[in-house]
Structures are given as structure tokens and as C-alpha cells.
């Protein structure tokens, strides 16, 4: 698979991830509860699919730039940690209205950090 196609898949995963997190955060901020969200399954599927596309395309792109899975640089490890955080934050944002308000601004910050790491590869 070409590097450009992998990037497109990776960006598609980003869109799906932020779509689901933003939707759930907004629903929760408006007083919605996890049990009252009739589209909770759709959001969870979108979230999971986004994460899967991100991780699969991300690791495939690492092969293209000759980074092996046995010795990952620090920037890749930090991106994996951010990916894991995004994975767990769906549960948090769907349950806690106060945290949903904070994470509304925190999600883009995490995304910017992940983008910075990918573009500049600082370490």
C-alpha cells in the first residue's frame, strides 16, 4: 500500500475519532446521560473504527520510513500513549459532564501534540 494511501486512511481515522468524541462530549455537556443516548452504539463503533484505522495505518507508515517495531523512537511511544488516552476517554466523556467540558478543549490539544510529534519527530 502506498504511503499516500496510508496517510489518507490515517486522516480518515482521525476524522472518525474526533467526530465520535465531539458528538459524545456535546451530548454529555447538554445534560445527556450514557443510558439516554440512543446513538451510543453508533458513536462507539465510529470511535473504535477510527482508532483501528489510526493504529493500523500509523504502524504501516512506520514501515515506509524504516522504523521497526522492536526499537520505537520516543515520538512514536508518545503517540501510542495519546492513542490509548483517546481510547479510554470516550468512557470518561460519556459519564462526566464536568470533564466533558474540559475535554472539549483537551481533545484538540492532544490532537495537536500528536500532529506535532508526527510532523517534527523531535526524539
In short:
Helix content is 80%, strand content 0%. By secondary structure, it is mostly helical.
Structure, explained:
With 123 residues, the chain is mostly helical. The chain is 80% helix and 0% strand. It has helices at 3-29, 40-64, 74-95, 97-120. Helix 1 packs antiparallel against helix 2 (40-64) and helix 2 packs antiparallel against helix 3 (74-95). The radius of gyration is 15 Å and the shape is elongated. The model has no long low-confidence stretch (mean pLDDT 95).
Strand content: under 5%
Cα-to-Cα separation, first versus last residue:
27 Å
Tell me the radius of gyration.
Answer: 15 Å
Largest sheet: none
Low-confidence stretches: none
Keywords:
80% helix; 123 residues; mainly alpha
Itemize the secondary structure elements and their pairings.
Blueprint: H1 3-29, H2 40-64, H3 74-95, H4 97-120
